[in-house]
Write a structure and sequence with these properties.
alpha+beta; 3-stranded antiparallel beta sheet
């Protein structure tokens, strides 16, 4: 596995909020807040590069933390 490989996860409402807050903080103020919401596929998964996921959620993932990913399931996307 490479840090540039893609993963997909189903975020909990708390995970979606963290995603939104992260992107809202870094997007220019003239951009639409709609751009800050996680993009979901038809099955409800949001796709990230592994390094991107770690950067956004890393500080929120620790023993005893509120769950951010439904069922704690991370799917590795076939990058071939």
């Amino acid at each position: 596995m490479n840090l540039n490989d893609f993963i997909k996860v189903k975020l909990t409402p708390r995970g979606e909020r963290i995603h939104f807050d992260y992107y809202y903080k870094y997007l220019p103020r003239f951009s639409s807040a709609e751009l800050c919401f996680p993009t979901k596929d038809k099955e409800g998964f949001t796709k990230y590069m592994l390094w991107e996921f770690a950067h956004i959620f890393g500080e929120h993932l620790y023993n005893g933390a509120e769950q951010l990913i439904q069922k704690n399931e991370v799917i590795i996307v076939d990058n071939k």
